[in-house]
Amino acid sequence: MAKKKRLGEMLVSAGLLTEAQLRQALAEHKKDGLKLGQYLIRQGIVHESRVMDIVSDQLKVEKYRPDRYPIDVALSNLIPADLSKKYQVAPLSRKGYLVTVAMLDPMDIDALDAVEVHTNLEVQPVICTEQEL
Q: How confident is the model at residue 100 (pLDDT cuts 50, 70, 90)?
């Protein structure tokens, strides 16, 4: 099985980030309490849509598209607001025992587990931007 690259490595490989920028961001992002991708986006170093494209391609996770997931008010009670805010997730659809959620970081195992435990459903992540969330 091929080893998955880290986000910083993928951004450098794509020419969106230099090695020097990566080293500096790795040293700084935790001071701000942010994940690396969030830090790079907020500093204006990398555009959010580019980070989302790279993560989506690497993880084979679908990108959020509003036309594919119309707002379903019935899902609003599926995940409580505090849980949704803490883990930055929002329910998009439910089919049987599967709930599809929009999230900023589809690699956040804690978030996926928390939603799974709370809903008692299998969780399928879809990556989205902070604005879409």
A: very high
Residue with tokens 């450098």: 12
Task: Supply the pLDDT for residue 77.
Answer: 87
d(CA 99, CA 77): 13
| Residue among 72, 102, 109 nearest 88 (CA) | 102
Average pLDDT over residues 89-104: 94
Rounded to whole angstroms, the Cα distance separating 33 from 4 reads 24
Q: Which helix (H) or strand (E) holds 58?
A: helix 48-59
Q: Are 36 and 29 in contact (CB under 8 A)?
A: yes
60: left (phi over 0), alpha (psi -120 to 50) or beta: left
Instruction: Compute the distance between CA of residue 7 and CA of residue 22 in angstroms, rounded to an integer.
Output: 10
What pairs with residue 89 in β-bridges? 103
Exposure string of 59-87, with b = 16+ CB inside 10 Å and e = fewer, is: eebbbbeeeebeeeeebeebbeeebbeeb
CA distance 29 to 81: 26
